[in-house]
Amino acid sequence: MKLTKTTKIGILAVICLTILIWGINFLKGRDIFRTEKVYYARYKNVGGLEASTLVTLNGLKIGYVREIYFAEDLSGALIVKIAIHNDFPLPVGSSAEIASSDLLGSKVVKINLGKSDKFLHPKDTLATKIEADIMSQVSEQIAPIKAKAERLIVNLDSIVASASKILNGESQRNLAESFRQINLTMTNLEKISGNLNEVISGEKKNLASTISNLSEVTGNLKDNSGKLGHIMDNFSTFSDSLTKLDLNRTIDHLNATVASLQTVLSKIDTANGTIGLLVNDPRLYQNLNYTSENLNRLLVDLRLNPKRYVHFAAIDFGRESSIPTPSTPQIADNITFSVQLLTSLTPISLTSPIFKGLDEVFEKKSGSKYYYCTAPEPSYDKVRMVLNNVQSAFPEAFLKAYKKGKEISLKNALKSVKK
Predict the structure, then answer these.
(1) Could you tell me if residue 97 is inside a domain?
(2) Is residue 375 part of a domain?
């Protein structure tokens, strides 16, 4: 069968096209006549990775990057399609690491094998890793040195600033003055040493005389060593005489005296004898306290009713100045009595411990003074009892009378009560 020219041209064109396609794919690292297994890897950043980049396993080329495109979930992640034409199986857990293949920054995809007994199937997704490039590694190594250099520069700057402050005009003047003072000190020391030399040279004779006197003293001590021995013997005899004194008897007498005193004190403590009763019997204190209270009441009654105790019979003006104390409780309308406890220039809290035991205490201010009184009471006898009870705690306490809230004399109040 004879082929026509047109057929030959068509066959040649197909052959050329086939060779062209094969050559282009070959240049891309793809062999169209070899079966390939495709795997996927997902990266956030491919670091300049391009299609047709080599894929290696332990340094051996086993495939290439067929395609790089964005993920369909619009997250911005990149999907790398890896074609592997080697029949070596990849265990589960294998990863695809983007690494630098040379100092110029060319990229390569390294396959790191996993340790599982199971194997990946085509179109499975590999784990991903990105190896730090040389610039990143250099930056990591240089960063600490850079920080130290910056701190060093800051320290040097501080040192220079401190030195500039120290070496200002005033500091320089102070340093010059210090050096001048040091020179003066050295000059004075030199003068002092010269004076000492003059003194020593002038007093050589006196020093020699002093040394000779010391020699004579030591010689006299040596000559009188026998007398010194006799003095020491006399002192020894005196000490022996002291030891022979009857000190033990004196100490025994002192011990007996202390024992007797201890016996007397124990009797006083156990209330034996008059002194013991005075010290230990509480009734004596109670009687004295009761007597003091009665005397205080007597003095108060004497101050309020002096004519009860002192009578003037020569002249009688027809007025009775004594204030009789009602024997029975007497109450008059609108008349109340109160005990003024004390006065103070500064206010005192009504809850103060000095008012302990009193039911109610009222405060009144007149001018610059504060007056503290008990609660108003219409019964004169009750107020007198309150006065007797508080007289020991408040010696200046006295009775006050009120009519319709206004203070009146105690005499007029008692007359109203008597009516």
Answers:
(1) yes
(2) yes
Over the stretch 203-228, which tens digit does the pLDDT of each residue have? Answer: 777 888 888 888 888 888 888 878 88
Using N-to-C axis directions, what is the helix angle for 282-304 and 380-390, rounded to 10°? Answer: 130
Q: Can you give the residue range of the structural domain that contains 390?
A: 317-418
Amino acid at 227: K
Instruction: Please indicate, yes or no, if residue 212 is contained in any of the structural domains.
Output: no
Q: What is the pLDDT of residues 249-261, one digit of tens each?
A: 778 888 888 888 8
Interval 361-404: pLDDT, tens = 889 888 889 999 998 888 888 888 888 888 888 888 888 898 88
Q: Pick the last residue of a domain from 80, 105, 131.
A: 131
Give the Å distances, CA to CA, from 71 to 41, 74, 97, 317. 11, 6, 19, 132
Residue 24: enclosing H or E segment and its boundaries?
helix 5-27
Cβ(360)–Cβ(375) under 8 Å? yes
Tell me, yes or no, whether 401 lies in a domain: yes
Q: How many domains does the chain have?
A: 2
Give which of 4, 3, 117, 108 is closest to 52, Cα–Cα.
108
